[in-house]
Each structure stands twice: as C-alpha cells, then as structure tokens.
Amino acid sequence: MKNKVELFKNLRKFFGFAKPLILSEVDFGQPIYRIFGPYFRSITFTFVIESMVWSFLTLAPTYIATYLFQDEIYFIYGFVLVFLLIWVFGWVSIYFYARAQAQLRSSFEYSCYKKLLVVDPINHTYRSTGKIINKCTKAINAVEIFFDNILFDILPTFVQIIVIGIALTSFDTFLGLVILLTLIVIVILTTISQFFVAPVLVDNEIRYSDKVSEVTVEAVAQIVLIRSGFATNIFVIKIKNRLKEYSSVLATIWMTYISTQTIPRLMFIISFVYLAFTLRGMYFDGMVDLPLVTGLLITYFSTFLFVVNSGRKIQNLITNYKQIQDVYVLINEYGEQTFPVLDDNQNSN
Questions:
Q1: Would you state the pLDDT for residue 337?
Q2: Residue 258 and residue 251: Cα distance in Å, rounded?
Q3: What 3 state SS string does 301-345 have?
Q4: Are 210 and 131 spatial neighbours (Cβ–Cβ below 8 Å)?
Q5: pLDDT tens across 47-80, in order?
Q6: CA 17, 18, 19 angle in degrees (round to 5)?
Q7: Distance between CA atoms of 164 and 265, rounded to whole angstroms?
Q8: Residues 114, 117, 122: CA angle, nearest 5 degrees
Q9: CA–CA gap between residue 136 and residue 108 (Å, rounded)
Q10: Which of 89, 161, 173, 253 has the least CB density, counted as fewest CB within 10 Å?
Q11: What are phi and psi of 70, to 5 degrees?
Q12: Residue spans per domain, the chain
C-alpha cells in the first residue's frame, strides 16, 4: 500500500497540473449552458484537434493501402510525420481539456453542495437524503462526461461521415452523394428515435434510481440506531424489491435502444454491399486500382459502429443533460437561505 501511495505521488508530480485549480460559483438561476462558458476556449481547441485526428484516422486505411507499395518511400515518411504531429497536438489539447474538465466538475460539485448546506435547516426535514445524494452524484458525473460524449463519441461520427463523403465524391460524384446521404439518413433515424424515446426512458431511470437510493441511504442511517436490528429484515426486503424494479427499467432501456438500431443496421449493410459492387465494377473497368478499392471499403466499414451507434451516443447526451437539469430543478425548488451561514472569508473562498 505504501509503495502505491509513493507511486501516485510521483505520478502526480510528473502528470499533475502545474497550477492549482480555481473553483468558480455556479449560478443555478442561469441557463445550464452558462456553466460551460469559462471553459469555452479549452473545449474549442480540443474540438479542432479531435476533428483533425479523426479526419486522419478515417483516411488512414485508404492512404496505407494506396501508397504502401509505391516506389516513392516519402509517402510513408509523410504519413508517420503527420501521425506524430497529430499525436503531439492531441496530447496538448487533452492536457488543457482535462484541466478544464476537472475545474468544471469541482466547481459544479462545490456549488451544488454549498447551496444545499446554506439553505435553512427546515428545508431538509421533509426531504429524502438518499434521493438528494443520488441526484447530485449523477448530475456531477454528467457534467464531467457531457463534453466527453460530444468530443470523443459524437464528433468522430460526423467527421467520419463528412470525410468519407468527400473521399468517395472525389472518385465518383453520384456514388459519393448516395453513400453520404445514406449515412446522414441513418444518423437522423437513430437521433430522432432517441429524441422521442430517450426522455421518457431517462425520466423513469432517474425516478427508479432515486427510489433505490432512498431506501439504501435510509438503511445505512439506521445502523447507528438501536432499533436498526429490528428493522434490518424490512430494509433488506425493500432494497431487494427496489433493485428488481430498477433492473427491469434498465433492461427496458437497453432493449428499446437495440430495437431502434434494427433499420439503421440494415441500411448500413445495404449501403456497404452497394459500395462494394460499385467499386468492383469500377475496378474491372480500369477506373481504380485494387489497393484503392480495398482501402475505401475498409475505411467505410470501419465507421459501422460509430454510425449505427450514434443513437446511443445521443441517448447518453440526453441522459447527461436531463440529470444536470434534474439537479437545477431540485436546487431551485429546495428552499431559501434567510439568515447568514458562512462568513465573508468562507464565502469568497
């Protein structure tokens, strides 16, 4: 254990932030998007770099298949050089993004619990502690991963679609437009389905999750009381029943999501077959060579999971937003502070 602590200290010295994090107050009376304002530059920088990374990675199979066996070796050197440059810029962007993300999460968590601590004590007497903790914990995690979903899940999907559309259009305009429109339709179908279905599923997931936390936290709180021994069996039964209900809700969410993927998956398979036969015909007509055909097919097929799972990514984003919104509603309706609790020094820090 001691060795692990020492190792972490060394890692923290090497990889930790040079400057301490600065926590800022979150105004829960403002729109939700305002909490991201102070970190706009870091997020934008990461957005640009990630777009470059995924543009490069999307075309990498085609580039390798086309130029690997060419006489000009400088193509390989160029490929490696670009890869290294993108890796360096990516590392820098992730550093600033990680710092912004840590500040955002800590600021939100600090503001959330501070608001709950300074309200008049009477407001706590008729509320479930477990429910409050569950809502705050989920919202804090949602704030942390909100832009993770955008930058590392949703952004790559759209970059791949655009890059593939441009690449195929450069060889055959009609073919490129057909594939591009197909991919756009797939994303639209999965997105629309999630916009209609996800809010209903997320609201129920939050409701049943709150029910589980109400019982579990109450059960733990009873441990300090003498009567807890008499109530143990009752709480165990309650927790078991609540978890059964919650598990059923989670299963419903997953099966609903999988069902919405059926048509997009079929559309992608059909579009791949269409692309394969079209490129095959172009190859036998002498319009393209075999390495290029192979590279384009590998490039297109590599987008399968990103494209058909785009609905899931949208669902995750909606879930994050609803969880953050849930805490905004909780705090704004929780109660008021009618007398001072913190002194000026504490308030300023």
A1: 67
A2: 11
A3: HCCHHHHHCHHHHHHHHHHHHHHHHHHHHHHHHHCCCCCCCCCHH
A4: yes
A5: 999 999 999 999 888 888 877 766 667 778 888 8
A6: 95
A7: 18
A8: 150
A9: 10
A10: 173
A11: -80, 160
A12: 25-337
Exposure of 225 by Cβ count < 10 A (0-12 exposed, 13-18 middle, 19+ buried)? exposed
pLDDT of residue 234: 72
User: Concatenated DSSP letters for 125-154?
Assistant: TTS-HHHHHHHHHHHHHHHHHHHHHIIIII
Residue in the block written with tokens 């905004």: 328
Q: Could you tell me the two tokens for 319? A: 């879930």
Q: What is the pLDDT of residue 221?
A: 63
Q: Which of 319, 272, 44, 315 is nearest to 178 (CA)?
A: 272
305-333 in b/e form (b: 16+ CB < 10 A) is ebbbbbbbbbbbbbbbbbbbebbbebbee
**Which tokens hold the place of 280?**
């095959």
Fold of 25-337: ABC transporter transmembrane region fold (1.20.1560)
- Which two three-digit tokens encode residue 134? 């569950």
Q: Is 23 helix (H, G, I), strand (E, B) or coil?
A: coil
Provide the H-helix boundaries in the chain.
Answer: 2-15, 40-67, 74-118, 129-149, 155-171, 173-221, 228-260, 262-284, 290-301, 304-308, 310-334, 344-348
Structure tokens at 22: 């600065």
